[in-house]
Structure formats: C-alpha cells, structure tokens
Design brief:
With 79 residues, the chain is α+β, with helices and mostly antiparallel strands. It has 1 helix and 4 strands; from the N terminus they run αββββ.
Length: 79
C-alpha cells in the first residue's frame, strides 16, 4: 500500500511539473528610452568614451579636453 501511494504521488508530482513547463507566457515588451548624450569620460590623453559607449577623439582647448568634432572645420586648433 505504501509503495503504491508513493508511486502515485511521485507520478502526480512529476506530471504537475511537466504540465507547468508547457505553459508559455508572452514576453514583455521592453521600452527603450532615448537619452540626450552630451558628456564623455576621458580614458587617456586625446581619447574618451561618450555616453553611448562610442570612442571619441578629444582635443585640449584652454586647459580642458573637448570633443574634436566641434573643431574639425576650424584650422586654428592650438594646444
């Protein structure tokens, strides 16, 4: 009697686990937030990373590093 009850309970437990594994839920839609990127982190002299993770070139202007993209058209870059 004990073996039969133990077998029945184990079969029921395994069947509940197998039934629960078949239920699929809808994946949640992730919402992407676009942010305004205006800063950067200096890695070494002349190289930095912006807030999107892209590598950017930096130039030293008036004692501070600034983005080189701002001064590409100007030929008067001085260190």
């Amino acid at each position: 009697m004990k073996k039969g009850l133990a077998t029945l309970l184990s079969i029921l437990g395994i069947s509940f686990i197998m039934i629960g594994a078949n239920f699929k839920t809808q994946p949640e839609q992730s919402v992407t937030v676009k942010k305004h990127c205006s800063g950067y982190t200096i890695l070494e002299a002349g190289v930095g990373i912006d807030c999107y993770g892209d590598t950017v070139k930096l130039v030293k202007m008036h004692g501070y590093y600034e983005l080189a993209v701002r001064y590409e058209n100007n030929n008067d870059i001085t260190n």
